[in-house]
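Quick one, T. Sequence first:
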Amino acid sequence: MSDLATLEKSILDQIASAADEAALEAVRVSALGKKGSISALLATLGKMSPDERKTEGAKINLAKDAVTQALAARRDVLKAAALDARLAAETIDVTLPLRDAPAETGRIHPLSQVFDEVNTIFADMGFAIAEGPDIETDDYNFTKLNFPEGHPAREMHDTFFFNPKQDPGSGAGAGGSRMLLRTHTSPVQVRTMLSQKPPIRIICPGRTYRIDSDATHTPQFHQVEGLVIDKGSHLGHLKWILHEFCKAFFEVDHINMRFRPSFFPFTEPSLEVDIQCRRDKGEIRFGEGEDWMEILGCGMVHPNVLRACGIDPDVYQGFAWGMGLDRITMLKYGIADLRQLFENDIRWLNHYGFKPLDIPTIAGGLSS
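Structure tokens:
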């Protein structure tokens, strides 16, 4: 066998044994590159006689063509094998379940859900929703609500006061009133009575603030208060509203309630409300049992409050009530520690939270 035939066979064997495209490229460069073995043979043609060049040139070019075709064929085989390996490695099992949509994985905080539940119940009774600022004046938060000067609720240990605004002329606070973070949503009632003529029927849900923190108190919490002002309003109406609310909110057909005398500066008479419940193995069930639990305070609006808000107490009377939304959230959904409502623990929210599209309705159920 001639040297050319031996070289051709050696190159073809290397091509056939190339394991990947990188190895195949190395064979191509060693054979057909500028310093390749076949390229070196082609370079010798210039030193040959015309007859030798014609004969040897044809042989070398035939060998070059055979190597080129073998390289192309092997490259196609290696590309196909690489594609098959990639497809096998990147296989997707289309039978696997899809990821849950955001509407399924997201959760509504129990407090937000209870806000909606409370608003839904009272809206069904014909109440409007009133709102007001978190930062209030001492006048709206205390004075117009019949809190006398020196009342304990005005003291620093209960209320977040702002520094007094200084009047360059007198050195007194602006208008004689100091700003504070509202301690209840009652200032919304004051603002409503000052801006709206009776009859009035509103609820006032929102954030409130007091200097207190433990398992059942937080510095910032939530309340909902209600107010009805009309010429014929009386305690019978108040009792019916609260009874219907408790039945709807706790989703029971019947619930016993008892009203105990109490004292609030802004109502007279004032009442505390207890509801029937049964405590069993750490659970509280409403509408059954022989135990009682206090949930809210209420009463007839004090004539001094009506008078301070520009309403004639000889013509109109009304009633009001207030309850902690955090507290009734804990009672309804079995949350043991109030502080958990504010810890932003995604595991806790996944357990107690509600699906975004589970909108509470009277007909469809509040928490279903």
